[in-house]
Amino acid sequence: xxxxxxxxxxxxxxxxxxxxxxxxxxxxxxxxxxxxxxxxxxxxxxxxxxxxxxxxxxxxxxxxxxxxxxxxxxxxxxxxxxxxxxxxxxxxxxxxxxxxxxxxxxxxxxxxxxxxxxxxxxxxxxxxxxxxxxxxxxxxxxxxxxxxxxxxxxxxxxxxxxxxxxxxxxxxxxxxxxxxxxxxxxxxxxxxxxxxxxxxxxxxxxxxxxxxxxxxxxxxxxxxxxxxxxxxxxxxxxxxxxxxxxxxxxxxxxxxxxxxxxxxxxxxxxxxxxxx
Length: 276
Prior knowledge:
CATH superfamily: Ribonuclease Z/Hydroxyacylglutathione hydrolase-like
Number of strands: 16
Helix content: 25-40%
Structural class: alpha/beta
Strand order of the largest sheet: 6-5-4-3-2-1-14-15
CATH architecture: 4-Layer Sandwich
CATH class: Alpha Beta
Oligomer: single chain
Distance between the termini: 25 Å
Largest sheet: 8 strands, mixed
CATH topology: Metallo-beta-lactamase, Chain A
């Protein structure tokens, strides 16, 4: 299984998942044209995609879903509440496949299991993805706090995409109106660095090969703080393998491809931080 974040942040999110001959997107919050360009940068054509999984209806996750689905005849997997809440932006879709929370479903040779997360959307979910070879990856962003269900679902992974949205002091001292600050730091908002690092420390195991810190705020966070918090959480674990890697995703460009046993850096991407 290969995974790359095409973009990550409040201006647009999209994740490419590929295993063997199967490829699909999780969310497509950039324009259809920009998603296509970023796929092209990693030698993937939208015509190769089997579809799009939609985790919730916020614009930074669905902006390009309708155009891509209609142009390339792609099915969209999501739950009914998300489909209805996002209908004005999504428009008419060629094919919708209903997702039921905690019920696994298959796309190509990858099994996906959705789990509920706390966020101010209709029925948002995170995902675990497992290949037929047993490679196991988790994706959890856009959540206000860490639940017991989230902790349970993110155990024993080989790779993890986890929200490190904001540094709380930066948010509180920043220029946003108080109502927006309250929304971001609230129970249905976004995960701050310390809470994300705490979760990472709880779920990391010797099987964990890589971590991508995702959905980082451009106004209320920075890479150095994220790396410090995440490294602190992982370096304190004696069971962590020395070869594990850490990467901070950005809005500007795709991450490297991450997969079983290797990391293939792509031109123009950020340097992968080693944990040692």
